[in-house]
Amino acid sequence: MKKELDIYDFDHTIVSVDSGTRFVIYCFLRYPWTLITLPIVAVGGLLTAIGVIGFTQFKQRCYTFVRLIPLEKAVRGFWDIFEKRVFPWWYEEKEREFVVISASPDFLLEEAKGRLGIENLISTRHNAKTGRIIGENCRDEEKVRRLYEEFPDCKIVDVYSDSLKHDRPIFSLATGKTVHIQNGERVEFNYKEVYGEK
């Protein structure tokens, strides 16, 4: 019998912020010497805008500062502040085993995993010493690929995400409910009415 799982996105789904972006800002403010990496980020943003590099390459440029900070301490300090931004409904008892799939960095979400009782976590793999992304950014179709890499024989029941634009691939896996998170509220929707046939 296939393992039944629910899927949850993380940013703006479980927590009210984009944790990866907020972590970058937190570190620039908490460790001001990391601002020396801003030109790298700015050039990366420009190259992305004109199509020279992809979003994954830009994203890893954003995290080049991690080699300049005490990363584990910074991550703990970040979640000491932002843990209170988790939506209250997250703490309700879950119906079944679940997996959280996110594009945010693994080094950032591993701390949240322990704090929030996350059973299974799939996120973008980074080299914690350099900030470089290992493999692909975990978004869109990559979420599905990574899911079946770790759970090759699973049945997806309910799917929760704030992003109708980017998370169609995981919504399409649902055999139960598809739930759009809007301002922290859970709103069920009909997949066919939003996307058409699977």
Task: Give me a quick take on this structure.
Strand 5 and strand 6 (185-189) form a beta hairpin.
Description:
The protein is of the alpha/beta class and 198 residues long. It has helices at residues 19-30, 38-49, 55-62, 71-82, 106-116, 141-150, 168-171, 191-195, and strands at 3-8, 98-105, 120-124, 154-161, 178-182, 185-189. Strands 3-2-1-4-5-6 form a 6-stranded mixed β-sheet. Strand 5 and strand 6 (185-189) form a beta hairpin.
Q: Which short descriptors sum up this protein?
A:
198 residues; alpha/beta
Major β-sheet, in short? 6 strands, mixed
Estimated helix fraction: 25-40%
Tell me the overall shape: globular
The largest sheet has its strands arranged as 3-2-1-4-5-6
Low-confidence stretches: none
User: So how many helices?
Assistant: 8
Span from first to last CA? 24 Å
Structural class: alpha/beta
Q: Which whole number gives the mean pLDDT?
A: 95
What is the number of beta strands?
6
| Order of helix and strand elements from N to C terminus | EHHHHEHEHEHEEH
Strand content: 15-25%
Overall radius of gyration: 17 Å
Topology:
Blueprint: E1 3-8, H1 19-30, H2 38-49, H3 55-62, H4 71-82, E2 98-105, H5 106-116, E3 120-124, H6 141-150, E4 154-161, H7 168-171, E5 178-182, E6 185-189, H8 191-195
Parallel strand pairs: 1-2, 1-4, 2-3, 4-5
Antiparallel strand pairs: 5-6
